[in-house]
Design goal:
Layout (H helix, E strand, L loop, with lengths): L9 H7 L13 E5 L4 H27 L5 H24 L2 E5 L2 E6 L5 E6 L3 E7 L2 H6 L1 E8 L4 E10 L1 H20 L1 H7 L1
Antiparallel strand pairs: 1-2, 2-3, 3-4, 5-6, 6-7
Length: 191
């Protein structure tokens, strides 16, 4: 998955079409544009699923000792909570696109009110891959781009597929951007 002359994957081509036109600056070229993994929906729903499971277990235990008068209502509420959690996570997934250009790394969020966070590649001090337990279990991970002397996370790409390969593409793009900014031609173009 190198950003060289290889044709872009279907996933990248589809995500590129989702990049808002006003996001790109003059002369900026998209190297990579991806959506979070489909696992993002399940992982994002885990708090809702966990809460519904606890309520369902408590309802079952209570029904063992008492008449199950409201058991059907409790099961319905648990199912509704799971559905709401899955819908909220799906909505978040739809509104996320991660974009790497020859100049910046960007995280786009939102469907109705699109917002983005970006960092200049030349300002990125460190690119840190990480994976929470649910991400590790399904083979996904997150990438955090740290900037500034305090190394704050400027841009985060959460629950992406093939995080190792994506990490390498980002590092390569940062290296090329920093080398270009140090060359005499790159410095004159920046002025």
């Amino acid at each position: 998955m190198t950003p060289s002359a290889e044709p872009a994957s279907e996933q990248t081509q589809a995500a590129t079409s989702l990049v808002p036109a006003r996001l790109l600056q003059d002369g900026e070229i998209i190297i990579l544009a991806i959506k979070p993994s489909n696992w993002f929906v399940l992982i994002g729903s885990l708090p809702w699923l966990g809460s519904a499971a606890v309520v369902a277990i408590v309802a079952y235990v209570v029904s063992l000792f008492h008449a199950p008068a409201h058991q059907q209502v409790i099961w319905s509420l648990c199912a509704a909570a799971v559905l709401v959690g899955m819908m909220a996570a799906s909505w978040q997934w739809l509104g996320r696109t991660y974009v790497l250009t020859n100049r910046r790394i960007i995280a786009v969020r939102g469907l109705l009110r699109v917002q983005w966070v970006a960092a200049e590649l030349t300002d990125v001090e460190e690119v840190t891959p990480a994976a929470a337990l649910p991400e590790r279990l399904v083979g996904t991970g997150s990438i955090f781009c740290l900037t500034g002397p305090d190394r704050t996370a400027a841009v985060a790409w959460n629950t992406i597929s093939r995080p190792g390969e994506v990490h390498e593409v980002i590092l390569d793009a940062i290296d090329r951007a920093k080398r270009a900014s140090q060359s005499p031609r790159g410095r004159s173009a920046a002025r």
